[in-house]
Amino acid sequence: MPTDEDIRLALRLRALADALLVPVATAARLPPEVVQGFVEGTTTGAVAAAKAPKKRKASAYNRKYKAAFKRVSKKYKKKNGEWKKGGFKSAVRAAHKDAGGKK
User: Fold this and answer.
1) Phi-psi bin for 59: left (phi > 0), alpha (psi -120 to 50), beta?
2) Alpha helices, DSSP H, located in 1-103
């Protein structure tokens, strides 16, 4: 269900596209139906693209590495939670090794 903000955004995009394309289409002698179809498709696609950001799926190795890093990082931190000197780099290497990676 589109929200008020989505509708306002679509109307703003449509007005902008009309303002840019209509003079060009008139000069190029394009039929108004073609321009209107293009404008409607552009605004619909832009609103849909803005609404649904796609998130990539983490690989199996990435999940193993994440768990290993959380497990291993405790050894390379101070009591106050800061990293020891060279601790982050060492934790990354240990986590890759634990997760079965090459590094």
Assistant:
1) beta
2) 4-28, 32-51, 60-73, 87-99
Q: Give the pLDDT confidence of 44-59 residue by residue, as tens digits.
A: 565 566 666 678 899 9
Q: What pLDDT is recorded for position 49?
A: 61
53: three-class secondary structure by DSSP? coil
Residue 42's pLDDT is: 60
pLDDT for 74: 93
What are the tokens at 3? 């929200």
Residue pair 10/45 in contact by the 8 Å Cβ criterion: no
Question: Are 90 and 76 in contact, with CB atoms under 8 Å apart?
Answer: yes
**Residue 30 region by backbone torsions, left for phi larger than 0, else alpha for psi between -120 and 50, else beta:** beta
pTM listed for this prediction: 0.47
Task: Quote the CA–CA distance of 43 and 61 in Å, as a whole number.
Answer: 39
